[in-house]
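Aggregate trends can hide what the representation actually does to any particular protein. For completeness, the protein is quoted in full, as a sequence line and a line of C-alpha cells.
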Amino acid sequence: MKLTKRVKWLIGTAALVGAWVAFGPKDPAAVEPARGAAMPAARAAHVVAGSAKPAPVAHSLLALAHRVAEQTAAGSLFAVHAWYVPPPAPPAPPAAADSTPPAPPQPTAPPLPYQLLGSYTPQGEPTVFFLRNGERVYDVHVGDTLDNTYSIDSFRNGQLVLTYKPLRIQQQLSTGVGQ
C-alpha cells in the first residue's frame, strides 16, 4: 500500500499530539481523581477548608456551597406563568344621531364611448360627423340616435352635444372646429 505525502503528515501529526497528551507536562491546577476510598462530602469540604493552602478549584467549590438564594427569588424560579393576554374591548357603538341613511349620490352618465374622426359638409346639405366606437365607425347627422343610447342634439361652438338617453344627461364632444 502506497501512502501519499499528505497521509504521512496527518499520521505523524496525530502521533505527536497523542504523545504530548500522554507524556506532556501536567497542569498544576488540574483536578486529579481520588486514588483512595471516597470520602463523605462533608468531611472532604472540612479537610479542604482546614488545609493551609487550598487548591483554586476547591476554593471555588467551597464558596459556591455556602451561597443562599432569597425566598422571593427561590419561589419564582418555578412559578406558573400565564401567557394569555385578553383581547381588547370592542369599540363603543357609534352614537345614532340620525337613523336615516344618507341619500345615494346622483347617477351620472358614463364617459362618452365615441371619438370624433372628422366631419364633412357637402354644399347645401347638413354636416356629416364621423364617430368611432371601438372598431365601428358611424356617420351621423344632428338628430340621429346611436345604439338607442345616445342622440345627437346639436352642433354649436365647435362642440357636438349628445344626450345619454337613459338618464337624459347632455354631454359634449369637442370637434376642435369653431362654427
User: Anything to note?
Assistant: Residues 68 and 74 are 9 Å apart (CA to CA).
